Amino acid sequence: MKQAIVARTDIGMGTGKLAAQVAHASLSAVEKTEKSARSEWKGSGQKKVVLKGDGERTLFELAELADREGIPNAIVRDAGHTQLEPGTVTTLAVGPAADDRVDRVTGDLPLY
Amino acid sequence: MKQAIVARTDIGMGTGKLAAQVAHASLSAVEKTEKSARSEWKGSGQKKVVLKGDGERTLFELAELADREGIPNAIVRDAGHTQLEPGTVTTLAVGPAADDRVDRVTGDLPLY
Questions:
Q1: CB distance B79–A24 less than 8 Å?
Q2: Total structural domains within chain A
Q3: Which residues constitute the signal peptide according to the record (chains A, B) (predicted)?
Q4: In which domain, by residue range, is A12 found?
């Protein structure tokens, strides 16, 4: 079981900003996950990988793919108080789900 | 309402690693938070700030302070599959709680 979180590389987020947006996406996708899958993921150490996505379009395409695979996912838009324009898409979390299912969606992306 | 997540600056975490550890701490502290406070935080946009902590000792001291203030908090130790020694303390999440309560614990730390 793992969760993959894709963060955009093309909008110049600072490290702290990026980490907050990753956490936001992670939590949102976990909340959409069935209790049994959630428990299994937590029990196995709640593995997370953070991956690079090259733009907004990539995140939306991967979210659609996750939907088609039936994997819980969540896209985050920044509230825009700092650094970014309000509504900027920043991150996408996919899973938690079985590793091979998550890899079918995000397996081609490089680690952040 | 906000949640502050303190990440160590002294252990050379890469950006993706740091973001994953921040997400882990965030989720763990949210799970310790009472449902009403959790809902209030989410309803107001689940504000998160990521802050710099200069070492393990700082994180433990802040966790103790949060305990004394009655604020939910969670320290994360890395499983150590990559980059860090197993068991390395990486992050501390404080809250969600009212902004002024969180600031009593982490208000002196710089933004990451």
A1: no
A2: 1
A3: none
A4: 2-106
Task: Please indicate, yes or no, if residue B24 is contained in any of the structural domains.
Answer: yes
The complex's ipTM works out to 0.94
Under an 8 A CB cutoff, do A19 and B27 touch? no
CATH of the domain at A39: 3.40.1490.10
Which residues on chain B are in Cβ contact (under 8 Å) with A24? 46, 48
Report yes or no on B10 lying in a domain: yes
DSSP-derived pairing of the beta strands A89-97 and B2-8: unpaired
Q: Supply the pTM of this predicted model.
A: 0.95
Average pLDDT, chain A: 95
Inter-chain CB proximity A7 and B19 less than 8 Å:
yes
Size of interface A-B (CB pairs under 8 A): 76
Contact (CB<8Å) B23/A18: no
Task: Tell me what pLDDT residue A100 has.
Answer: 97
The long-range contacts involving A52-57, CB below 8 angstroms and separated by at least 24 positions, are A52/A6, A52/A7, A52/A9, A52/A109, A52/A110, A52/A111, A52/A112, A53/A6, A53/A7, A53/A8, A53/A9, A53/A92, A53/A109, A54/A8, A54/A9, A54/A10, A55/A8, A55/A10, A56/A8, A56/A89
Write the pLDDT tens digit of every residue in B83-109. Answer: 788 899 999 999 999 999 999 999 999
